[in-house]
Amino acid sequence: MNVMRFTKMDGAGNDFVVAADIPGNTVPHTPEMIRAVCDRRRGIGADGLLVLKPLAPGEVEMIYYNSDASRAMCGNGLRCSMEFAALNGFADSHAVFHTDAGRLEAWRLEPEQIRIQMPAAAPFRELTVCGYPVYLTSTGVPHAVVPLTPEEFCNLDIGSAGRAIRFAGELAPEGANVDFILSDGADAAQVRTYERGVEAETLACGTGAAAVGAFLLWKYGGNEKKRIFCAGGDVLTIELTANGNILKEIFLSGPARAVFTGTWNWK
After folding, report:
1. How far is Cα 40 from Cα 10, in angstroms, rounded to an integer?
2. Domains and CATH numbers, the chain
3. Is residue 226 within 8 Å of 238, Cβ to Cβ?
4. Catalytic residue numbers?
5. Are 256 and 107 in contact (CB under 8 A)?
6. Is the pTM for the entire model greater than 0.90?
């Protein structure tokens, strides 16, 4: 019998099982076992599994698996990884993480408040998908930003609309996470995200918040700091630097907390 010690963590309502890839802790990497860990009825339950391997003081490898066992970059997961690293002695208030989206830095501003570097947003491409105006970009993973009117946002059936856009032929073969937004001027927006790999709405999406912040600056201008109101009630702050119409850097700040620790036995 294998034993995995883990911490259940929450980043603005996006929840994760986090485990250290260290001697004496056996972490599963097979699709079958990853899906079992994330199963909300028969497993621990989570949007995804984060596997962290310390490489040197303040330097950590981060592998993120969605609940369907697909690998991805995850902004809320990176914030939780920084909090986990600080709690477990892998780093102090700053660390460098090696992710599927490259080398990214993170800072622990205070306990449970984390600021992270995000991948730069790819240039936006405008298209129409399933009757919606869609603005496609990537912030480590592909995102389709969909602006809505107040009435459309209020009446949104995100399961149906999100799934239709995520699997639309125009976005094939990899599809995209779908961010439905209601903007409040140039510097704030409410967001509901249908996440690829979870195949459902999540309470928050870090790469989605970064994509929406980049969209607000690109489309409407305004300040280089944006407030993103997540479906779970948390607020994420996006800081952007730009040279004309070219986005240079994106930083995301928000909560990350340990909820409980435990062990999971698996064969």
Report:
1. 15
2. 2-115+256-266 (3.10.310.10), 125-255 (3.10.310.10)
3. yes
4. 74, 205
5. no
6. yes
